[in-house]
């Protein structure tokens, strides 16, 4: 990853169920490699906040914990990776989430002359996910992620980094979490075999402490901590 990133455009895909730690690890990888972090969930939340047409379409679907259509997601992703900061590579978090998205991504990467994507799969225990997701709090200002059970901020409700207000995502309520996990099982889990059969999958134990997961991730990407 370290040497390849400067010569060939590399796509790194973070794959795993909601709450597996993809967003947290993406931030650590970005710090190390300086590649843009492309979270389709974050992009959609920006559209929601800005009240765009796309945001209005996506809002009820996201509130139910279902997946937004491939057409909307692919349009958004293709526009984003055509920008200049993506020339050397990018880190996908929460994309692709369906076989249709993965197949389309393959075509797009081929067209760009990009190398094969590398896929980091975060294996986690499903029972732990609900606890993780319901305890998740995100800084409204800088996006830092906490967990009230396992990684609480120093001051209740405030970010350690910049004092920003910590928010609970509306789709981190228990009934929506159940639907998001069901959508993952139905539509996203088949991607594990899809990428494994292509020899692109690297599995990481997502149940370890975040710092230990980061060390493993960096080792897999060919870096020492
Ligand atoms: P996330 O922040 O990745 O958990 O995404 C939040 C929500 O945005 C998901 O529950 C979906 O409704 C939607 N979403 C994000 N990424 C995708 C994607 N690649 N395909 C379809 N829907 C997505």
What's a concise summary of this model?
This protein is 48% helix and 15% strand.
Keywords:
225 residues, alpha/beta, Rossmann fold, five-stranded parallel beta sheet, three-stranded antiparallel beta sheet, globular, binds adenosine monophosphate
Descriptive account of the structure:
The protein is an alpha/beta fold and 225 residues long. The protein has a single domain, classed as Rossmann fold (3-Layer(aba) Sandwich), CATH 3.40.50. Helices cover 48% and strands 15% of the residues. The chain has ten helices and eight strands. A hairpin with a 5-residue loop joins β5 (136-139) and β6. α2 packs across α10 (210-220) and α3 (40-50) crosses α4 (53-64). Mean pLDDT is 92; it is low at 3-7. Bound molecules: adenosine monophosphate (AMP). Adenosine monophosphate is lined by residues 18, 40-41, 44, 61-62, 65-68, 73, 94-95, 97, 101, 171, 180.
Secondary-structure-based class equals alpha/beta
Distance between the termini: 14 Å
What is the third-level CATH name, the topology?
Rossmann fold
Q: Could you say which overall geometry the principal axes of the C-alpha atoms support? A: globular
Count up the helices: 10
Q: How helix-rich are the residues, as a percent range?
A: 40-55%
């Amino acid at each position: 990853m370290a040497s390849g990133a400067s010569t060939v455009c590399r796509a790194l895909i973070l794959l795993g169920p909601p709450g597996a730690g993809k967003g947290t690890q993406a931030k650590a990888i970005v710090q190390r490699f300086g590649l843009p972090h492309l979270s389709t969930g974050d992009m959609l939340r920006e559209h929601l906040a800005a009240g765009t047409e796309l945001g209005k379409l996506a809002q009820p679907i996201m509130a139910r914990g279902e997946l937004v259509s491939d057409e909307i997601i692919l349009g958004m992703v293709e526009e984003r990776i055509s920008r200049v900061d993506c020339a050397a590579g990018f880190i996908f978090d929460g994309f692709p989430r369906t076989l249709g998205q993965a197949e389309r991504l393959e075509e797009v990467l081929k067209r760009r002359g990009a190398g094969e994507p590398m896929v980091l799969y975060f294996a986690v225990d499903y029972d732990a996910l609900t606890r993780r997701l319901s305890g998740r709090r995100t800084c409204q200002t800088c996006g830092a992620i906490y967990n009230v059970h396992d990684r609480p901020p120093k001051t209740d409700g405030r970010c350690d980094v910049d004092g920003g207000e910590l928010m609970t995502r509306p789709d981190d309520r228990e009934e929506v979490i159940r639907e998001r996990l069901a959508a993952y099982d139905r539509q996203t889990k088949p991607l594990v075999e899809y990428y494994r059969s292509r020899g692109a999958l690297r599995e990481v134990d997502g149940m370890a402490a975040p710092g230990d997961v980061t060390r493993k991730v960096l080792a897999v990407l060919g870096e020492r901590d």
